[in-house]
Structure formats: structure tokens, C-alpha cells
Known about the structure:
The chain is of the alpha/beta class. It is built from eleven helices and eight strands. It has helices spanning 38-45, 71-84, 97-108, 127-142, 145-156, 159-164, 166-178, 183-195, 222-231, 247-250, 252-264, and strands at 2-6, 9-14, 23-27, 49-53, 90-95, 113-119, 209-214, 235-240.
Amino acid sequence: MNSGTVDGLYHEVHGGSAADRQTVILSAGLGGSGAFWAPQMDALLGRFRVVLYDHRGTSRSARTLTDPHTVAATGEDIVKVMDAIGLERAHVVGHAAGGNAGLAMALTHSDRIGKLVVVNGWSRPDPHIKRCFDTRLALLNNTGIAAYVHAQPLFLFPADWLSANHARLEAEEVHHIQGFPDPDVMRARIQALLDFDIDADLPRIACPVLVSASADDMLVPLSCSRRLAERLPHATLDIAPWGGHGFTVTAAEAFNATLVDFLEGA
Length: 266
């Protein structure tokens, strides 16, 4: 594994040189940490070179944001990481905020993306997503970081999985509180997602796109993924029957099989 930082963006390259295999860049959701993709690494590294990075403002990257901060700027950060490692073209896999960044990147840098995977993403503001984010912001603003982090799994995972993994979540909660971004950074990241609207531009995205969603996602309605699949010219919709917003964690084996099949397909 090789690691580095470019323009404040921490990144890691796993799995050999670009000459040996195709490269996949993984872009996390609102939490921003490349470590989110741990359940996918073994499945991908058998076939691809993998690039992880931490979103600007989070984890090991610079704890400040672009001004103004937008989803488009997060897409540009993916390009900056690619430029830093000398990568002309790659597959991009993004979860929620990371998937939206991939869509934004596909509009401005279509020549840099091979295939795009958008997991639980959206193309325009949605009332239910706003209600969820308003609730999370109220916890952050009125009660504090610990309350925000404690409530977070309710939005991410199914209830039965939460019960079965209580001890794991309790241990992770301490880590998430310690590494939490500045609250102003989190507020700005959420606002960028609420402002994101490329719905009218979806027909211009030319690359093949896997739109991956979970039927029981508590945070992003399935209708958002269906709309992406309907309006993107070259989209494949895959719906997991169970797993919540974080089904890349809760149903990793099934997701990984679908992911690899799409990336390896013609």
C-alpha cells in the first residue's frame, strides 16, 4: 500500500500498478472516511487496483472545506487524487455523498470515468432526505456531537442488525466521536448535499452506471434510485431487498458480488 496527500486529501493506493489491472476509486458517504469500504477490499483487490481517500474535512484529510463547498467540489477532489497518482481513467464507486460526487464528476470529466457505481444516491433535493438531515442537525446543534453519533446508526442500519451488533456499534461510537469533524464542517457538508440538484443534467452522463439501492433504506428513498436509473442513458438498477442505507456493510457479500460483476462486465 502506498499513501500520500494532495491538496489536503489523504489517499491510499492498494494492489499494484495501473499497468497490471484496472483501477477502482472508492468514495465514502457523509462520514467521508475511506475506511468505510473495508468490507469491499478483499473482493476488489483480487481483481483491481483500489484507491481509497478521505473526503476533504474528514478523517486524515485537511479539516477545512472548499469555499463555497459543493458536491461538485467533492467531485473535483476525486480528479485531484487521480492526478496525484498519475491516473488518467478509473472506475468510480461512491456511497450516497460519494455517489453524488461521482455523478457530478461524470458531468465535467466524462473522459476520466470508466464505469460509475452510485450506491443510495440521488439527483435532486428530496423531502424525506431533508427531514432526516434536519433531525440529525438538530441533534448536533442542540445536544452535541455525542448525541449525533449515537443516533447515526438509526439512519444507517436495519433494526434487527442494530440489535445483533450492539457491542460493535458501542465500540465504534467512541472512535467516531473522537474523530468527528468540526461541527461547521459537518453542517456545510450536509448543506451541500441538500443543495445538490443535477436532475436535468442526468441525460448527459454517458458512462455506464450501476445504480445500487436497498429497498429498506431509511435515509434515501428507493424512489431516488429509481429516478436515477430512469433518467441516466446507460444505467442498471440493482435493488437489495434488505440492509438499510449501509447495506454495503450489512449485506456486504451480496453487494460485493453485484459490484464485481458490473465492473468486470463488458
